[in-house]
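User: Please predict the structure of the protein below. I'd like the answer in structure-token form so I can feed it into my own downstream comparison script.

Assistant: Understood. Taking the following sequence of 70 residues as input:
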Amino acid sequence: DPRHAMLEIAIRRLKKDERLLLSMRYADGLSMREIAFVTGQKEGNLAVRLLRIRERLKNIIKEIEHESQL
């Protein structure tokens, strides 16, 4: 699936700590409370970081789509 491949490429372009947070939340299914416990960060801060990471991921996907059109 081309969309899956594009998502994998986009995720690889994220910083290591961003990939880790996404992985804990979505691949591992950890709650915000669990991630906060593991990372030592506040839940509110994590929610904002994950929001920003998802936005960054969307922007990276747009960049990839643009690159593929060139």
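That's the full token string. The chain has a mean pLDDT of 95.
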